[in-house]
Amino acid sequence: MDLLNSVDLIKYYGKKMALDHLTFSIRENEVFSLLGQNGAGKSTTINILTGLIRSDSGTFLFDGHDLKKEPAYFKRNIGFVPQDIAFYGRLTALENTKFFGSLFNLSGRKLHQQAMEALDFVGLSEVANEFPGRFSGGMKRRLNIACSIVHKPRLIIMDEPTVGIDPSSRNHILQSILTMKQGDSTIIYTTHYMEEVEKIADRILILDHGRKVAEGTQKELERKITARHTYTFFLSSTERVDPGALLRLESVCDVTVSKNKVVVSTNIFSRNINDIIAYFTNNRIEILDIENQSISLESTFLALTEDGGKGEGTA
Ligand SMILES: Nc1ncnc2c1ncn2[C@@H]1O[C@H](COP(=O)(O)OP(=O)(O)OP(=O)(O)O)[C@@H](O)[C@H]1O
Predict the structure, then answer these.
(1) Residue 238 falls within a domain, yes or no?
(2) Are residues 160 and 33 in the same domain?
(3) What is the per-residue pLDDT across 30-53, written as a single tens digit (0 to 9) for each?
(4) Is the pTM of this model over 0.95?
(5) Residue from 11, 22, 43, 194 to probe ligand 1 pocket by mutation (most atoms less than 8 Å from CB)
(6) What residue owns the CA closest to ligand 1's atom 6?
């Protein structure tokens, strides 16, 4: 069953369209990963959902409740773990967690109990009465998570929660996401780390320039391109490459040109890349290397996004 629907979201910053008719749905009790290169629109989507900014048109529906009409319903049911660590250095871990719980009208024994449960959940109950200033980066991040889940939200949004932390905290966070899922929680997870997505995501939304490129399970996304072979030609220069000419070759279904390489997808039935090689040699474009890519989430992602392969490679 759908827990959350994004319905035709449009967002402009000045003349720049940051979200372009974005529609997707999140099912109850799944880990849903938002993937996209820098500037794809992930933060804009999350900021609209958490009420930080407003869309120009379109809305979110949570259990059928409209964000524009019932923002309080969203606030009550969503826990947001921001990228930047946010808590008070003068309060202990427990006091911080209780403070955030009190913002959701929790008080007394119930507040104390839920705060301790949240700290226990992120593995910080033993340092509950210590000040977080001396915590490691990973412990601070875990405290952040405790503060965001103390009110037991149904939907938890985590914006790159494992950036810049030690491997043991990272594993702890990934493990706790899987545990939350076993409970009643639904989780939206943005990350640059493809291997994390492979490990924990049930379904994935790939965003590119504010548009939905694909939505589905890892297998479904991979299937979108398994009907193709993908070859990467590393070239001395791609200046003279004409993607249109490559696309006119019979076997070629897709071409992506970036700084020093051209990624060519060919029809599954065509194992012959002689015509592609001939194109480069006839145009005096030197081939330095050729790679036949196996299908992985990363290659799926690169194949599906417009800038695939540009820059740092992953989302
Ligand atoms: N406040 C703003 N004013 C103007 N343009 C903005 C603003 N915030 C975002 N943008 C632009 O909107 C587009 C989407 O940005 P957004 O921050 O949502 O992307 P993102 O996928 O979260 O990227 P990142 O991974 O870098 O955080 C980008 O082109 C960005 O430059």
Answers:
(1) yes
(2) yes
(3) 999 998 888 889 999 999 999 999
(4) no
(5) 43
(6) 13
